[in-house]
Design goal:
This protein is mainly beta. It folds into 2 domains: 31 residues; 263 residues, Single-stranded right-handed beta-helix, Pectin lyase-like (Pectate Lyase C-like), CATH 2.160.20. 10% of the residues lie in helices and 31% in strands. The protein contains 2 helices and 32 strands. The strands form 3 sheets. A 12-stranded parallel β-sheet has the order 1-2-5-8-11-14-17-20-23-26-29-32. Bound molecules: calcium ion (3 copies). The site of one calcium ion has 6 residues, from loops. One calcium ion binds next to loops.
Length: 339
Amino acid sequence: MKKVKRGIRILTACFMLAGLFQFNEISANAATTYYYVSPSGNDSNNGLSKDTPFKNLTYALSKASAGTTIFLLNGTYNFSSPIKLTSSGTSSAPIKILNYNGHTPVIDFSGESESSSNRGFQISGNYWVLAGLKIQYAGDNGIYISGNYNRIQDCYITKCCDTGLQMSNGASYNRITRVTSTYNYDSATNGENADGFAAKLSIGPGNVFENCIAEHNSDDGFDFYYAGNAVSVYNCQANYSGVGDGNGNGFKVGGNYTADNHYLEGCSATGNKLRGFDQNNNTGYLTLVGCTGTGNYVNFYFPKAPSSGSHKFTDCISVNGKSKDKIVGATITNCSFNQ
Ligand SMILES: [Ca+2]
Ligand SMILES: [Ca+2]
Ligand SMILES: [Ca+2]
């Protein structure tokens, strides 16, 4: 009985402590600065209300620090060079760039020429949140992330001259949620590079895609070439990839013989020029749960056993592939493949 009472006392103390932390967090939130930006605003305004907005996002960014929220009022914001997010928020006080009042502001980079240095948003900082934006016509990636703990959600990325959203060069613990990336095309290389989403070329751990859609991109829908760490993908779609010299895979989950144990759940690939789900020389083991390939040239193509362990396919469905599936070195449970 005594032990139980002591347990209750400890529990009570824990709840009180938790309450204290919550209180601190609310205090921190109360100190948040909100800036408003509008294409018809003026940088000599104070930017502190929707009626006195700044004109330039870059001006608002120059005043932003951990805990700042920037609201972009409806309209089109034109850029001819990348927006570089180099500073950082914190886990309890991220820096946010948000839409306002249900509208979708357009961030238009058509002033950029097609060149690998002309990205849209370039995020090397940590703890940024971008939400509710349309991003278009960047001269390279629409969004490029090398930083950590960033969140991109409810954005629409289109018609950029390389991959719509790319993570590389150590990017870790970033979460991409409900983003659509479509009609990206690198004309300079006849479409061979522009994916919908990429986590490739040396990422760190902990990156997640959820409920994202890649459609009509010239190269691949999702590309994890030479990732170097595992990516988790939930409920994402990759459809109709492959224009010009593009490879045309839905989910390209490997490359360059690195062992990256990616996890895909509830994903679907439809109508891609080449493969719906493609191992692409990944030497790690891949786990696919509840994934569906429909009407791709090959729906599932995993021709090599992993260097250790086994691939795991559970509840996966292959429908109307033009050529047969190939799966080697896998534990297959409750799937309908056409091998
Ligand atoms: Ca490029
Ligand atoms: Ca390619
Ligand atoms: Ca690619």
